[in-house]
From TrEMBL:
Keywords: Glycoprotein, Hydrolase, Signal. InterPro entries: GDSL (IPR001087), SGNH_hydro_sf (IPR036514), SGNH_plant_lipase-like (IPR035669). GO terms for molecular function: hydrolase activity, acting on ester bonds. It holds the Pfam family Lipase_GDSL. This is GDSL esterase/lipase At5g14450-like. Belongs to the 'GDSL' lipolytic enzyme family. It comes from the Eukaryota. The keyword Lipid metabolism does not apply.
Length: 380
């Protein structure tokens, strides 16, 4: 715990000094007219529900009062980012009902990976909408909306993005956790480590594709501490020596850290390759690990506790599902107060935890360069 405190202080001091060194007070606020997001369930605002099957109750209960396609009781980090930028929540690209794309679109789909996997949604939850497909969808979205915008009456344009906003938009990448999960599932350390350069390079190619078509500002999340997810801790027989000081699986977190190390190096290289781009690397891992290490101080229960689901006596029923156990039907509902929990369902965070993380990353405290998100269009 003391190590976490010291680490937090160092991060805070470094961020203040670094922000001052790049002359933040002299930078103008970026005019992000739109946000385009690419990702997995951590930022899926309803694409998965539109493509496969809708997220049911009790998801959405805290903020929206009903299921709205998010694997959470309320808002996600991407929702808080949009609110901070003064924009509405992003509409999923695949959702055709009540949709407006005037201020951007969300291509994230739950279960998505950076690198296409030879697996399926029905087998193990892997989405066919890998990052390369999401980029193809964006390219088509941009071409088609531009076509209709220039040929529509003004009243028909209100739900379409302005063509000039694409170059001034913020492009967010929040993907990679499922690539790591796939590596863990295959239980082959050497194969996973050999695959990381290609996984990272495919994300870089997605950025390059967008850059070649005029995109300039990129906000790239690394992946969180997968070894701290309660689903990992509840579904495995674990020996004490396998855990770190925060009760997380060291071996699984090592996968995340290796991916993050190579991702950061690739982002730095992209800055040289794309001279007109502003690329921000966001250390989601550090932010989430700090929250987990200070859970009780921040008003949460133990980080390994799960709000939604039934996990007792080796019986595991996933959030919102029903299961017959020895003649008794068990419904895996939510806890009484989700805002006390970090984990919503063992994999995804609660709205309260998402808010905690979002409010810290938007300041630039966990970013390289350490610029607030409203200044992310600037190159220090």
């Amino acid at each position: 715990m003391e190590n976490v405190k010291v680490f937090s202080i160092i991060i805070a001091v470094f961020s203040v000094l670094s922000v001052e060194s790049v002359g933040l007070k002299d930078l103008k606020t970026c005019n992000f007219g739109a946000v385009y997001n690419f990702g997995d369930s951590n930022s899926d605002t309803g694409g998965g529900s539109a493509a496969f099957w809708p997220a049911g109750k009790p998801c959405g209960e805290t903020f929206f009062g009903r299921p709205v396609g998010r694997g959470c009781d309320g808002r996600l980090i991407i929702d808080f980012i949009a609110e901070h930028l003064g924009l509405p929540h992003l509409s999923p690209y695949l959702d055709s009902i009540g949709t407006s794309f005037r201020y951007g679109a969300n291509f994230a789909i739950g279960g998505s990976t950076i690198r296409p996997q030879n697996e399926s949604m029905s087998l193990n939850g892997v989405s066919p909408f890998s990052l390369d497909i999401q980029i193809v969808q964006f390219d088509q979205f941009k071409d088609r909306t531009g076509h209709f915008y220039n040929r529509s009456y003004p009243r028909h344009r209100r739900n379409l993005p302005r063509p000039e906003d694409f170059s001034k938009a913020l492009y967010i990448f929040d993907i990679g956790q499922n690539d790591i999960a796939a590596g863990l599932r295959k239980k082959n350390d050497s194969a996973f480590h050999a695959s990381v350069p290609d996984i990272v390079d495919q994300l870089a190619k997605a950025v390059q594709n967008l850059y070649e078509h005029g995109s300039r500002t990129f906000w790239v999340h690394n992946t969180g501490p997968i070894g701290c997810l309660p689903v990992s801790l509840h579904y495995h027989d674990i020996k004490p020596e396998e855990l770190d000081e925060q009760g997380c699986l060291k071996a699984q977190n090592a996968y995340s850290m290796e991916f993050n190390r190579q991702l950061k190096a690739r982002v730095i290289k992209l800055r040289e390759e794309l001279p007109h781009a502003a690329l921000t690397y966001v250390d989601i891992y550090a932010a989430k690990y700090e929250l987990i290490g200070n859970a009780k101080k921040q008003g949460f229960v133990e980080a390994a506790n799960i709000c939604c689901g039934f996990h007792e006596d080796e019986i595991q029923v996933y959030c919102g599902h029903k299961q017959n156990i020895n003649g008794t039907e068990i419904y895996a509902g939510s806890c009484e107060n989700p805002s006390d929990f970090i984990s919503w369902d063992g994999v995804h965070y609660t709205e309260a935890a998402n808010r905690w993380v979002a409010h810290r990353i938007i300041t630039g405290s966990f970013s390289d360069p350490p610029l607030p998100i409203k200044h992310a269009c600037h190159k220090p």
